[in-house]
Amino acid sequence: MEQWSREKRYQKLEDVDAKVINDLKERVQASPYRQVFHIQPKTGLLNDPNGLIYYQGQYYLSHQWFPLGAVHGLKYWFHYTGKNLVNLKPCGPILKPDTTFDSHGVYSGSAFQFQNQLYYMYTANHRTASWERRSCQMLAKVNSHGDVIKFDTPIISGPPKGYTHHFRDPKVFQREGYLYALIGAQRENLTGTVLMYRTSHPEKPWTFLGEIDTQLKSFGYMWECPDYFQLNGKDILLFCPQGIDSEDNAYQNVYQSGYLVGHLNFETLTFEHAPFVELDDGFDFYAPQTFLDEAKRRVLIGWMGLPDTEYPTDDEGWAHCLTVPRILTLESGELKQKPHMDLRKLRQNKETALGYANKFIKQLHPYEGEQYELIIDILENEASAIEFHLRASKHEATVIRYESKTQQVILDRFDSGKLPHPVEGTARVAQLKSELSQLRIFVDTSSIEIFCNEGEKVLSSRIFPSKDANKIKVVTDSGQVYLKLTKYDIKKQIED
Ligand code: FRU
């Protein structure tokens, strides 16, 4: 493991020799785990998606970025633009840590449009000489040349009384002529919550309205990356609580990411809601953000990684990627997540097959690959359990198991290759409400995203198999299944 002193962690990209960066780029390019259709850092570490918006005919997408290695160091916003959500062009950093306020990182935030102008609100992270955290919220505006210009002074200067400096990740939205900002926060009693601010003009003072009064009074020590939107007339609050203990199959990852559905009273800030539901049942999912696409569909993109975890690519000088974009809908009180239709633009070389599978493991021919979309329709199922082995070789397999009786989909990384650590267990479980009828799976060089029953549940995970682990196999415990398989190859899409 590379050693990172505090000085090295907080070194600016601009102060580093071009040769050091080039050597790092070469190291990263030699990695066997580079993705082909996911957004990943060309060097260093990526985390949260930031500033997602469709604005004047283009998508704008940024992410948290520490360029110099696979650690959470001095954060920038790295930026992409594009006409659709799969052919995005890297544009370099747009927000850099170059003021006293953000001297220790331009942290997460969001984009919004106001009077035809594009704005960003983000958290400026500062550490005092005694290494105490100071957080405030800053504003930036995009000028007519496309340059992002920061305002000199914070628009929200610090946490209100009663809250600590864990005060970050503003998500701005519009409602009935006002702009609102939600901010992830920690109360002085060290419990997490979300704060709400409001203004009539982004450059005028923002008034603190209070906490969103949920029924979760003590649910972890910090809530990161809040988001709010409406679907079918219901209010939905997304956030990432930290410090929740695991319970059976729930809350297995180090930090969680989930949502509340209900009714938010904007006068009293009281939120009547159903229980917290996790957004993703895989191993690697955190800090998602939503936005409206060109057809005003609600789209979510997450970080396919987690904090406080070492990944097999760390020693290669890079870490993490974003998830594919997913469309959110609300059905029977729960969010459904379907792959965004722009992903169809990636499809090449369609192959289909119909066939029975039983307890004798069968390699599905000619199905193999490292980067593909695979749709499995389960047409008849008399098996007690079915297993699909992807990225499989003699010694490795990423196993997706469906148990008919319990209606559970289980993702098992036990034999999937190298593993991140520390990570609790090697399996993750998604509980379906009905029988499994379809899996739609996106496999990239080092990730897998599994959409069950048209988005009833999703499991997103990084996997680190060997290059020769490229087979697709199926087997049942007993009994047979009748399957339809459709596979599309996916070729390199996003420039590094
Ligand atoms: C979530 C997070 C945010 C913060 C950012 C810093 O992963 O911790 O709360 O703004 O990452 O990179």
Automatic annotation (TrEMBL):
Known catalytic reactions: Hydrolysis of terminal non-reducing beta-D-fructofuranoside residues in beta-D-fructofuranosides
EC number(s) per entry: 3.2.1.26
Tell me where in this chain the Glycosyl hydrolase family 32 C-terminal domain is found: 343-482
Q: Name one GO molecular function term.
A: hydrolase activity
Against Pfam families, the record matches this protein to:
Glyco_hydro_32C, Glyco_hydro_32N
Query: Known Gene3D superfamilies for this protein?
Result: Exo-inulinase, domain 1 (2.60.120.560), Glycosyl hydrolase domain, family 43 (2.115.10.20)
Subcellular location per UniProt equals: Cytoplasm
What family is reported?
Answer: Belongs to the glycosyl hydrolase 32 family.
What role does it play?
Answer: Enables the bacterium to metabolize sucrose as a sole carbon source.
Q: What is this protein called?
A: Sucrose-6-phosphate hydrolase
